[in-house]
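Format notes (please read before filing issues)

Several people have asked whether sequences and structure tokens are stored in separate files. They are not. Every record keeps both together, in the order shown below: the sequence lines, then the token lines. Line labels are part of the format and must not be stripped during preprocessing.
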Amino acid sequence: MSHNQRIVIQNLTYKTTKDQLLFNGLNLVLTNIKTGLIGRNGIGKSTLLKLITNELQPNIGSINVIGNVGYCPQDFSPYYNLTIAQFFEADPKIQALEHILQGSINPNDFTTLADDWNIKKRITKHAEKFSLKIRDLSVKIGSLSDGEITRMCLAKIFNLEPQADFLILDEPTNNLDTTARNTLYNAIQTWPNGIIVISHDQQLLELMDQILALTEHGIKIYGGNFSFYKKQLQIEHAAKQQQFTDAKKSLKITQKSIQTSREKHDRNQAQGRQARQKNDQPKALLDFAKNRSGRTEQTLSKQASRLMATAEQNLQEAKTNLDPDYSIHVALPKTFVPKDKIVATLENVSFRYDTNLPFILHNFNLIIRCPERIAICGPNGSGKTTLVKLIQKIIAPDIGTIKINVTSHYLDQKLEILNQQLSILDNHKILNPKVTENEAHMHFLTPTQNTASHLRQTNYPHILRII
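Then the structure lines:
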């Protein structure tokens, strides 16, 4: 690979459809090294990747990608209706191969196939590198689990022909089990070209050559992995905190100094009044002292105002410079279900999505009692989400019985509990019908979030507040 491959971003300005400014005059050059892109949810990380991959267009500026790109998005919903063959962009070749195997001598089929007789085996082999077994290339992507789709995408982009100069990965480990994550880590370590990855996975970010931190103030580059970034961030945070502490201290000192000067001036004025009352000095001298005292008072007042304004401005700047806290706080109510009450019972449950496929769950039994907290673990495609959907009665078992004795709420991976066409505020009011209009607005105190914006433009932590 040539080392000329790079991504050049010049004077990039981009606003969302709701007129929210995400980037303003951004300049950045990305070379063929491993780059981790981090930042709080909703700051514009995925948007930046979509701009680089030409999925979105900037309002001002340009993005020049020198080299070919492989892209693994976070949202696969646009691909749900594609078959695996179509997802790998191999459908025309596979159809041509099928025609030839059925006896076709049409020259167009041979031209389309282009001697790629092992196209099916090659796709299967690529998928197996990510522990994914493909039995049928005509299966729809939407029928797979999110983890399986992610592995499918990774299998595709890590094996592009010609090889990609840049791989762009948006939260690639979100839906992966431990085995798949380790496979991805190994693939990244041995990858010879450039990578740009958005992730909150610290183990993945440790594999990066540089970290790009995206904030409201722009992008800052840290020339090392995540551990290096954390150390630098601690130093910066300590410096900002010290600046804030010093500014508060300076304000108090200024206030005290002004108070001392005023008290001294008041004493001098009192002495002057006493001297005038005694009338033991020439009137001209007393008048001069009085006028000077008045001028001194005006000077002190102006000086005090100027000093206080400077000290308060320094404090406000130091406060603004502090790193904001974007922690998510979820207040869960206490359970009202009696202890040891049976919440759910599954007896000899078996389920499969198609009669031609093996059972995902077979003769499965489970009893859930209050207030048990249960974690469902297992590899991608093992049936974790299927089990939850059975308990929620979204799907029905082929064999066996399921009894649910309480009312439950389901927060699924795709957030289907929410209406994507409605605003944040409207979704919150539907799910919380007893809240007043004012209470609904007060629930969202993040100044950067517009409660009138549609759910599609909302970051995940803010969505949690809706629910």
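For reference, the curators noted about this record: The longest strand covers residues 21-31. The chain has four domains: 6-82+140-224, 233-321, 342-404, 424-466.
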